[in-house]
Amino acid sequence: MKRRHLLTATAALAGTVPAWAQPAGTLTLPGMDLHDPFIVTDTASQTYWLFTKNHGDFTGRQAIGVMAYRSRDLKHWSKPELVFQLPADTWAVEGCWAPEVHRWRNKWYLFVTVHNERLPLADPSPVPGQKTYRRSTVLAVADTLGGPFTLVRGGEPVVDKSLMTLDGTLHLDRAGKPWMVYAHEWLQLRVGAFAAVPLDDELRAVGPPRELFRGNASPAAKPQQGQGIIVTDGPQLYRTTDGSLHMLWSSWGDDGYFQTVSRSPSGELFGPWEHGPVWLAKGSGHGMLFRTLDERWMLVVHRPFKNARGKLYDVRELASGFELVRQRVELDLDAAPLGPQG
């Protein structure tokens, strides 16, 4: 405790107070280092929860895990709290990327990507100079949004451990059956893909995964590093009033990391899929849509790719898709806004 007080006083004299020393509700998005943001709107408490990988300088706890900020207005955010810590006795030792929290059967489930480079896979990477190793989405569960979340099935990956996977998300089909949609890593395929695996009521895989599409199906995704690499990241699925299914996802193109949307007119996970243009570029990506407390759609993305900050956009739902309306610079305080500003 003495060390924390000393650090706080020292930082204050320097004009920068660590995030964990800030009073609740005083942080804003420009001061919140975050990657792969995921927002849950809790109507019961009238609170937004923003989940991202833990940063010890923000929570005061040096742990591989997930932290959560809270806000009432999307502008002023609380000091983040550690809601999940990767246990020392599990197979994974790094990651906690792309945390998502979903309500399922009266519990909150955390989907999070972890890995261990010291556990190589049998199949070598098709990309020269790269290697394959264990990387998977695992689940954790809690009774409340604030956790603490505990690993499900001891951290057993949802899909086979021989597959290099990441960014798993929960999707309910028209019959209400759960699926996990995820990215199949370019390190293992060269051209990354999206796939889905059926789940039972315990969110355990009950069938083989099936591929949805590969990243080169989108004309916006461009080969990287002169090696034909196509990145696929961050799938998020939404259905519009015409019954069609829409996937937000990210890749790399002519203008860096970007956000795009693909559409399945049939409304089925396995398409066929149509691929739209770049939605946001210049390092924008890994976004998700959420409903505000007053029932409007908003998009949150991070930008730039490194030293990322959260950016907020109003989104309009059309019968057959989604339309960006404007960046909410009065909320995210972005000094260099991008996209519609009307």
From TrEMBL:
<dbReference type="InterPro" id="IPR050727">
    <property type="entry name" value="GH43_arabinanases"/>
</dbReference>
<comment type="similarity">
    <text>Belongs to the glycosyl hydrolase 43 family.</text>
</comment>
<dbReference type="GO" id="GO:0016787">
    <property type="term" value="F:hydrolase activity"/>
</dbReference>
<feature type="signal peptide">
    <location>
        <begin position="1"/>
        <end position="21"/>
    </location>
</feature>
<dbReference type="InterPro" id="IPR023296">
    <property type="entry name" value="Glyco_hydro_beta-prop_sf"/>
</dbReference>
<keyword id="KW-0378">Hydrolase</keyword>
<dbReference type="Pfam" id="PF04616">
    <property type="entry name" value="Glyco_hydro_43"/>
</dbReference>
<comment type="pathway">
    <text>Glycan metabolism; L-arabinan degradation.</text>
</comment>
<protein>
    <submittedName>
        <fullName>Glycoside hydrolase family 43 protein</fullName>
    </submittedName>
</protein>
<dbReference type="InterPro" id="IPR006710">
    <property type="entry name" value="Glyco_hydro_43"/>
</dbReference>
<keyword id="KW-0326">Glycosidase</keyword>
<keyword id="KW-0732">Signal</keyword>
